[in-house]
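#structure-requests
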Amino acid sequence: MEDDREWMYEGRVVNGMFSNEWGDKVDEFVAFALRHPECVNGGTAIRCSCTLVKCQNKTFLNVETVKVHLYKNGFVPDYYVWIYHGEKQVHQRCSSSVRVSVSETDHMVLDSMNHTTYHRMVCDAAGPEFNPDEEPNVEARNFYDMIRAGGKPVYEGNSRHTQLSAAVRMLEIKCRHKCSQAWFDDMSNFIQELLPQDNLMPLDFYSTKKLVRGLGLPVQVIHCCVNNCMIYWGDDSDLNSCKKCGHARYKQKVRGSGNRLYIRKLKVSYKKMHYFPITPRLQRLYASTATTNEMRWHSEHHMEDGKMCHPSDAPAWKHFDGCFPDFSSEVRNVRLGLFADGFQPFGQSRQQYSWWPVVVTPYNLPPDLCMKEEFMFFTVLVPGPTNPKGKIDVFLQPLIEELKSLWGVGVQTYDISKRKNFQMRAALMWTINDFPAYSMMSGWSTAGMLACPHCMEDSNAFRLIKSGKQSWFDNHRKFLPINHPYRHNTKDFIKNRKVTKQFPGVRSGDEILQDLNNRGLRKVIDVDAEVVNAAISKTCGWNKRSIFWDLPYWCEHLLRHNLDVMHIEKNVFDNIFNTVFNIPGKTKDTYKSRDELNKYCRRPQFAQNLVTGKYPDVPFVLNKSQKKEVLEWVKKLRFPDGYASNLGRCVDANKLKMFGMKSHDCHVFMQRLLPIALREFLPNRIWEPLTEISLFFKQLTSSSLTDEELRNLDEQIPVILCNLEKIFPPSFFDSMEHLPVHLAYEARIVGPVHYRWMYPPERYLRKIKHKIMNKAQVEGSISIGYIMDEAAKFASFYFKEGDPTIPLKEKRNEVYLDDIVDDDMFEIFKPPGKAIGAEGKRYLADNEYTAAHLYVLMNCPEVQPFIDLFFTEKRKQFPNLNDEVVNALTEQEFPSWFEKYVHNRANKIFNHYIRTIARGPLRENE
């Protein structure tokens, strides 16, 4: 028989006619089945493999009927291994040149098993290289243990769960709800009491973990120097002391003092890291039918209307494809992004402890899967308790070597959708970090007056004479067009300064690499790196040669390290809000700021009064009553469920400030609330630039962007920042207020922001923190929890209809009206909901009644034809009206016009919903 059985699902009908070639293949299939008497019933009947529910390899029919069914309905999906017709292979994925030799007992297991979802899961987990010896090794034995467990019901008479399905479902529930091992053991004991005595349900967590251990993926434990100088890996794996600082690798065997001495039997290292190889995790994406097709999405989709909705639509991706056509020609090759961030596992009130996870994620996936938790893979767990800072490259060595191997050689990987092996390669596209971690990854210092990694030595930052802080004030006119009037303004910016130079542009990878080579910077893993780099860093912004330059393709990327929009937006908002609200200790409008203001700018109206010694009020600061009114408004705000947190909890009415706002709270306030909150209290010349910066972030973070929109944002942001410089003092502008000038450029080069900010990884790492069950062994506890979670996630891909399913978690106020079928119901009323809390009655005031009625009418697609008719009538009646006036008339007159029009019998409007909605809402509501 042929190894390639794609013919079963291709070429059945050609030009409206059944294909003769396909029919010949069906005859071969039937002949194959008849050659195996154990699969034939009554001499002429075989199992029908068509898609009918009553067939699907369950019903014996005569040969001719089977052929008719196959011609009419086609083969049941994924029936590449003909196990119901005599084929006795473990899995067709095994190479045709490799014969699988196993014991007779194991053959019986494989022959008799039902080809369920869980058997496919076990085969996918075994991988294409699964090839047990004549006497099964440990890996092969684990495979057969799971096969057996997948064929045994959890107790006699149970047709829904097998021993394997029950184990993986229990494990998935444990991981999803973050339950402890003690809970798992107690629940297993309780389930034992409910089931018959001869059940096969795992007894505890240990037995469950032992049963499903074949689903897990490898982790390597590597010893480290206690001072983060090196790792005992590769050529250094046999050393007993650090080659840099000389510190011992292992703890002393004898400990204690006096008569109480203890001797360790095993060598215990002072410090160790955990490394999770990325190769088998990427291979598993092609081993599962749930993900393999999605991994090709990036090459199969097409841009619509020139909108970038994915990094594959962006110039950086296409430039990389052009530089390496041999890589891009195989669409299954993987593009990766890398995140790294530091976390405090014990909370703020406990001891200081910093651990640094490094996470990679594939970008091949479609937008609804990309950056999701299921596709974020731990690779490196940098141990605490201290921050590795620039020495993080020491711990990245195994990852970089693996990435080099995946780029140069690749790895043979089985694609279950194609039923063929291919040579999978991978490339790291960029890193994503907050600004301090940006320095750790790139080697460019993000502190001081050269902090901007795009401007580099072209920065015009300076140190303020009173506060001693760096300021990026008047650092944005160089981004304006050469003839812009702001360039010649000597009053509103630094006095007596005109700006004629232009920003030279972002340096290419080749230029940066040449600069690093010319300066002689060392990698931190080099023996003399600390001394050499310390001397060079005094004359430039570089503090090391990043280990990422070891990747042969790194210099070809248009962008290697991303600025994190999440933290930049939060810092910009904090500065604006704290200054406008004059929060003590956080406002940028301080006494020192006022004292040095006129040394840089011409703003005498804000200078100190020499008679009273006081400083006059500034127009961008709210007074007490205004602050109180804004905070009361915020406290009463209500958002759609899941849209934002309850901002009312962040309001401090006594101190007139907001506290405890997370990054997403600042994101919502910055883009949605800030212009509204300040509209009535600030002059237009101040309110407008604040609104413009708000709209800039709102447009920048859109899910889809066009090149034209991003070029407009790139042109607008320097003007917006210059307008802010005309309002706020120089102390307001730190590096975070400067970085927005580069964000539109990055989005234009590498695509939408939400694929490159820290929200998804920080939410994911917050969940990982909950896996710390042993606070004395943080990294080990996380490693074990992650491995179990990884196995549970892999198993969850196979929970489909007909097998135990993962319940889709409904939102807390969702209900479903499946029994109600009404085609005339309006779209706006179809998403059902339920009330939260006790019911209450409320009488709508006139303004509330009008607003509610107008909102419903304007948001019903079914009402749109009547709105168009109203527009037409008004334009006939008043031909010279512009759109603004027509919109105003719509808000004022359309509800009453609509009610009269609908209830006019001459118009013959009989739809119950339209007639009801025209009357408006009830005055009294529950």
